[in-house]
Amino acid sequence: MPTGRVKWFSLEKGFGFIASDEGEDVYLAAANLPDGVTTVKPGTKLEFGVADGRRGPQALSIRIIDAPPSLAANARTNHDDLAVIVEESIKMLDRVGNGLRQGRYPSDAEAARVAKVLRGIAQQIEG
């Protein structure tokens, strides 16, 4: 299987590119990341299959070989600021819960925003 390193990846856009060891750029869709992986950092070494997609070569069956060291612990949000973020998130979840009680699911955009906020809080808490 080919290998390469992540050139860039945008969670917001839902895709990025891998610089393969063979010298070509390979499209990396967020949907093709391994189960439980939501994002990858530039420089992450990957092993992947390649298929011809509408955007050129596309990575499939992705496996992370080596991830760069995490700087998350050094970039953790100040505990007072994180407390405010958690409190605001509780209000957001309360609005979602009230809507659900009235039989309304959140819109796709709102659901994506809630999920993104919760993932971000989880990453900050886990360190």
UniProtKB/TrEMBL annotation:
GO terms for molecular function: nucleic acid binding. Gene3D superfamilies: Nucleic acid-binding proteins. Residues 1-64 form the CSD domain. Transmembrane segments: none annotated. InterPro entries: CSD (IPR011129), CSP_DNA-bd (IPR002059), NA-bd_OB-fold (IPR012340). This is Unannotated protein.
